[in-house]
Write a structure and sequence with these properties.
By secondary structure, the chain is an alpha/beta fold. 53% of the residues lie in helices and 8% in strands. The protein is built from 15 helices and seven strands. It binds iron/sulfur cluster.
């Protein structure tokens, strides 16, 4: 185990993880390789809380509540399908834990607007959402790192798996915790970012990010037919006209995905491509087969839950009940520390 620059790079037992997904669309292979696989592994090492962040999703989907609501069960089914075990991980719904909203209000006194505006993650995201916000970002979106600090501290989570681009959010949370503790007493735990093996997966169009809104994703729930259509349209080496033209797998998205789904074959695939001994259509068909085979057990498990919505609801309700109890304990301590426990003796 090694700790450097406040980032845990290796596991540690007896600590709690908080992670989560925004219910704005089904999960895709970018989520799978970027965080879900890691999450499935980590649930065996740490007590794991997984938030379905519907309130956070509303910060940039406030005008589309149906979308958020409809995606809650989709997200939970995806999580269960990849191997999140409800006996090991607590899956809960953010909006059903009012203590998170309460903590957000308390913490908002401990953060300046200028500090939020300087947060590099927030700055980047605001720039990406210019279409939604125009020149004037909402109070809710600007303040979502404060709400995230509430998510983390409500459950005493100390390890937060994130990508490099989200490190400023964890730093912001740590600042809030330090400020709170310095004013009201040592109540909150300071979390650490866990970089783990999180990696960003490129989109079918070659975009650095695979995204729901970018239309360049392969979803975990995609059928074989859909996978086929998507892979057939993936960007390849544009310089290749004939099968025996030497290709460059470094600029081909099909080779990129072979790297993820065809680990044993990728070396040969790249050599044959470079030597002009492989046709792009055959190469794509091989990838379609491998992706389909890889995702088959996930789709099968997802299908099980699709047929049993009451089981999905029960898992989410049970997880939310457990999370609620935890948040209430934290809230009692916070209110006592902030002298907001007026009727305690009554
Ligand atoms: Fe890409 Fe395969 Fe075509 Fe080479 S042969 S350019 S790796 S699709």
């Amino acid at each position: 185990m090694r700790k450097e620059e406040n980032i845990w790079r290796y596991g540690k037992n007896n600590e709690r993880i908080l992670t989560g997904d925004r219910p704005t669309g089904k999960l895709h292979i970018g989520h799978y390789f970027g965080s879900l696989m890691n999450r499935v592994k980590l649930q065996n090492e740490y007590e794991t809380y997984i938030e379905v962040a519907d309130v956070q999703a509303l910060t940039d989907n406030f005008n589309n509540p149906e979308k958020v609501k409809n995606n809650v069960k989709e997200i939970v089914m995806d999580q269960l399908a990849v191997g999140i075990d409800p006996n090991k991980s607590t899956i809960f719904l953010q909006s059903m834990i009012p203590e998170i909203a309460e903590l957000t209000v308390f913490y908002s006194n401990l953060v300046t607007i200028a500090r939020l505006q300087r947060n590099p993650t927030v700055k980047t995201e605001i720039a990406q959402k210019r279409e939604l916000f125009g020149e004037s970002v909402t109070y809710g979106f600007l303040g979502y790192p404060v709400s995230q600090a509430a998510d983390i501290t409500a459950f005493n989570a100390t390890i937060i798996p994130v990508g490099e681009d989200q490190l400023p959010l964890i730093e912001q949370c740590r600042e809030i915790v330090r400020k709170f503790n310095s004013i009201y007493g040592e109540i909150l735990l300071e979390p650490q970012a866990y970089l783990g093996e999180n990696k960003r997966i490129k989109g079918l169009d070659g975009n650095e990010k695979m995204g729901k809104s970018l239309g360049n994703a392969i979803y975990l729930s995609d059928t074989e037919e859909t996978i086929k259509e998507k892979v057939m349209s993936a960007v390849t080496d544009p310089g290749r006209i004939k099968k025996d033209d030497p290709g460059n797998p470094d600029i081909c998205m099909v080779a990129y995905y072979h790297n993820l789904f065809s680990k044993d074959e990728v070396k040969t695939i790249c050599e044959e491509c470079k030597g002009g001994k492989r046709g792009c259509v055959a190469c794509k068909k091989q990838l379609i087969k491998n992706i389909t085979e890889h995702l088959a057990p996930i789709r099968e498990k997802r299908h099980y839950y699709e047929e049993r919505p009451e089981v999905v609801k029960e898992i989410l309700m049970e997880g939310t009940k457990k999370a609620s109890k935890e948040a209430k304990v934290t809230m009692a301590k916070v209110k006592e520390a902030m002298k907001l426990d007026y009727f305690k003796e009554v």
